[in-house]
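Technical annex, item 7. During the second reporting period the consortium partners agreed on a shared format for inverse folding records so that results from different sites could be compared directly. Each record opens with the tokenized structure and is followed by the designed sequence. A conforming record, contributed by the partner at site C, is shown below for reference.
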């Protein structure tokens, strides 16, 4: 049965984020933070195992000192079919409610990545989740898998 699934690991390829695991700690009070003035650097977030995914949800906002919060301007990509694919690029809501972004059709997804598109501010990434179910529980058939079950370590 499909449900919201939190990432369980991350990669900060440019070392421009701090508190990265806060983006998936199941707390909407503790953000991962994109370094001041270092917009344009992705934080990659990975699923516990491949999931048949139809959407992601994200809770984030842009902070400009001393105390101003704004809608976040972000670029979000999914990782499926062996490559990063664009999902969304633009302004999200105010950061006080979840923003849901959907794929046109379900895909076997293993990650997503987010970057900040606004200079002169911080991106506060409070939480992200994938909507779907682990492929192993679904018993994916087709696409050349011919009834095999796909797990995080390959076909069994």
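Designed sequence (site C submission):
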């Amino acid at each position: 049965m499909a449900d919201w699934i939190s990432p369980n690991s991350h990669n900060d390829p440019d070392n421009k984020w701090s508190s990265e695991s806060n983006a998936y700690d199941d707390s909407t009070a503790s953000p991962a933070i994109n370094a001041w003035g270092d917009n344009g650097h992705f934080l990659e977030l990975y699923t516990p195992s491949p999931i048949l995914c139809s959407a992601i949800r994200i809770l984030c906002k842009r902070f400009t000192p001393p105390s101003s919060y704004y809608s976040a301007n972000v670029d979000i990509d999914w990782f499926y079919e062996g490559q990063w694919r664009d999902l969304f690029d633009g302004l999200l809501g105010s950061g006080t409610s979840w923003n849901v972004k959907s794929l046109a059709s379900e895909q076997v997804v293993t990650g997503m990545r987010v970057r900040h598109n606004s200079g002169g501010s911080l991106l506060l990434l409070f939480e992200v989740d994938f909507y779907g179910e682990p492929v192993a529980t679904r018993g994916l058939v087709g696409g050349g898998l011919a009834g095999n079950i796909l797990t995080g370590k390959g076909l069994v």
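DSSP finds one helix and twelve strands in the chain. The helical segments are 135-138. All partners now use this format for quarterly exchanges.
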